[in-house]
């Protein structure tokens, strides 16, 4: 309740007492905070379930020399195993962390699509490996001759 130590002339007080209004506002704010559910930034992902009896697949990384081959049917192989560009990128990251870094050999087939070869070379460049070489260049020794036998 409002108390005034001011004039006693019998006139009504002109100031409004805001304490009860503030109390009501605080109670409403607390009730609102309690009823709002907490915000969560969870992302639900279904993870694959691996059979505990099956051993994890081995990564075909040679500690000395690894080879990427682009086949005539545009299949990409890592050390003779068919692989995707994402898998090759993961293999290259692992080889980059090895000490000493293994050599990477790159051998595209003469009839492989240029786009597949270019994407593969871009993955190799992004990986940052330092020991890299082209192999099988002898098939291009004579310019203008077909690299495919019989042509």
């Amino acid at each position: 309740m409002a108390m005034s130590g001011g004039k006693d002339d019998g006139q009504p007080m002109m100031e409004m007492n805001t304490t009860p209004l503030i109390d009501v506002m605080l109670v409403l704010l607390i009730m609102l905070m309690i009823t709002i559910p907490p915000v969560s930034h969870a992302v639900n992902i279904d993870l694959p379930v691996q059979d505990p009896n099956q051993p994890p697949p081995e990564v075909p990384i040679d500690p000395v020399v690894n080879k990427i081959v682009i086949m005539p049917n545009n299949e990409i192989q890592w050390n003779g195993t068919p692989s995707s560009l994402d898998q090759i990128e993961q293999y290259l990251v692992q080889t980059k962390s090895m000490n000493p870094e293994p050599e990477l050999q790159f051998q595209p087939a003469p009839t492989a699509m240029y786009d597949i070869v270019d994407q593969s070379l871009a993955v190799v460049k992004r990986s940052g490996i330092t020991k890299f070489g082209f192999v099988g260049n002898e098939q291009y020794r004579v310019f203008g001759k077909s690299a495919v036998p019989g042509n």
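The beta strands are 65-70, 76-78, 81-82, 103-108, 132-134. The first strand starts at residue 65 and ends at 70.
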